[in-house]
């Protein structure tokens, strides 16, 4: 929303916020999912001394790793440094990042009765360190750069809560969904209320826009998405959108795009499995779009990266409302110079 003072803060007219609103932005803004991470030497140096969860709970270090990454890359926005799964701790799940294999939840929700032991998030107080990270990142960031908050979407969080970690077939979460509609509804509504509270608190703490990550929802077909997911995601977006615009991101199944658009979000974030021009048509031109370079392209040469960036910009065809990003997070093997080459190429080829 437009701030009420006569002079809006500098971030209000930034290329990213203009693109979010679908306004012409002078140049195509770019930021990268997982822009602060193991591919960056500065991040690895911090992680040598600090465990990942410990880092997430240290607002000063969270602000530092994000500000260093933003400076190094020259991107058009910062994203809160945190993790999708932290919200599951105050709900009663025991979270660990054993290193290498990705996250692990020690007491997953497996049977319908288990849903009852998931706590209701009554306040964001147990996640105060996240709000402090927002305040410190905002304080250290140039005023012209927007700060993005985020949360997992209810399906992706439910998938982690039920599977207990990453999964190949999503057998456990889908069988809970198919076998017990009541338990599924209880789980998704409880997660939905927690996510809404959490995102609103991030906005109050100082983020300008929020991204909802539905990273694993692509394992569902269209009819299941409509029945088991869309109502819950829609109610979160409806509750948050009056305070801040929402980027609604999903991967894996381009057939879901019209439904993602229906569920809401000023911006729909897409992966590389569909061309950006086809995706935008499916989403509708009344919404902005974010994406969609395959993160593996960043392992190729700078020349190839530039060529592929140009292809995506050509598909956007100068239409207002394109935010350049990868189709998913930066891979740990990415040479940092290649990420910088992408940012520079998008700034050069996407201006005017
Ligand atoms: O984008 C950013 O730079 C902000 C920080 C951020 C992280 N995780 C830091 C992180 C964000 C936005 C996330 C979101 C997140 N976390 C998602 C959604 C995005 C996506 O990739 O789909 C998911 C699914 C998670 C859960 C999660 N956290 C996984 C699967 C992993 C392990 C993946 C890996 O690369 O090993 C994490 C750990 C994690 N989250 C790291 C970082 C920087 C790596 C931790 C480390 O070893 O230092």
How would you describe what is shown here?
The structure is a single chain. The longest helix has 25 residues, at 181-205. The protein starts with 14 loop residues before the first helix and ends with a helix. With 352 residues, it is α/β, with parallel strands linked by helices. It has helices at residues 15-20, 41-49, 52-56, 59-73, 128-140, 154-163, 171-179, 181-205, 222-228, 230-240, 257-263, 276-283, 302-316, 336-349, and strands at residues 78-79, 95-96, 104-105, 147-152, 209-214, 246-250, 267-269, 288-293, 322-326. The protein is globular, with a radius of gyration of 19 Å. The strands form two sheets. A seven-stranded parallel sheet has the order 1-4-5-6-7-8-9. It has a two-stranded antiparallel sheet with strand order 2-3. The model has no long low-confidence stretch (mean pLDDT 97). The chain contains 14 helices and nine strands. Helix 12 links the parallel strand 7 (267-269) and strand 8. 44% of the residues lie in helices and 11% in strands.
Structure summary:
The protein is of the alpha/beta class and 352 residues long. Helices cover 44% and strands 11% of the residues. Strands 1-4-5-6-7-8-9 form a seven-stranded parallel β-sheet.
Write the layout of secondary structure elements.
Blueprint: H1 15-20, H2 41-49, H3 52-56, H4 59-73, E1 78-79, E2 95-96, E3 104-105, H5 128-140, E4 147-152, H6 154-163, H7 171-179, H8 181-205, E5 209-214, H9 222-228, H10 230-240, E6 246-250, H11 257-263, E7 267-269, H12 276-283, E8 288-293, H13 302-316, E9 322-326, H14 336-349
Parallel strand pairs: 1-4, 4-5, 5-6, 6-7, 7-8, 8-9
Antiparallel strand pairs: 2-3
Helix pairs in contact: 4-5, 6-7, 6-8, 8-10, 10-11, 13-14
